[in-house]
Task: structure prediction
Amino acid sequence: MARKKIIAGNWKMNMTPSQAVKLVETLKPLVVNDEVDVVFCVPAIDIIPVLEAAKGTNIQVGAENMYFEEKGAFTGEIAPAMLEEVGVKYVVLGHSERRQYFAETSETVNKKMLKAFEHGITPIMCCGESLEQREQGITMDWIRQQVKVGFQNVTADQAKTAVIAYEPIWAIGTGKTATTEQAQEVCAGIRQCIAEIYDEATAAEIRIQYGGSVNAKTAPDLFAQADIDGGLVGGASLKEEFGQIVNYK
Ligand code: PEP
Result:
């Protein structure tokens, strides 16, 4: 069975609620493509207005983060049940910006992964190496570690439904896309790692995205690779260009 591509926008800390609704209105007609899953991962305050604005379209809505506890004294956090109740289907976990600025670790990512599955929310788990790690030749060791810890105690059935986003840190927001060969090589390595943790069937089903300065020009080659099942797109997801990325063929 061929894996369905998944192309997700990561809005990061952009768009007030009114701007968010306007952007959905603009992108709605441009992102129509039944062959791919289209997801807008948006700031927490934009989730409800974006869900409303996207009603009746092929746009699915995701969160950019959530906490791993059910509820309680965790000021400023968003609970998984809150996302579930309003109809959020995806959550980005372990984005490198959260690891860098908000002390996210693979261990906390793992706790969030388990909670997301409990609540029927599909995690988009991010992993990726720094430029220094790439230059040291430890890219795959590092990413294997992130994947192994992130998927601890995740069952094979759950893992099959998960999404992994390979995002080299040096390519995020820099305008420097990894070459198609670099992206394919690491995505194939991640699939191999999943096969080792679980089995070939799980590895064949899990979807692996590439992220890092994806644009309308680079998307077609990247998404044509055997192990790249779509993309996680930052900057270009806020522009009409996202429509071209979704319709990359
Ligand atoms: C991201 O935020 O996940 C990302 C890949 O950003 P950009 O496309 O802007 O590099």
About this structure: The pocket of phosphoenolpyruvate is lined by residues 10, 12, 167, 172-173, 211-214, 232-236 (CB under 6 Å). The chain has a mean pLDDT of 97. Residues 117 and 166 are 20 Å apart (CA to CA). Residues 180-197 form the longest helix (18 residues).
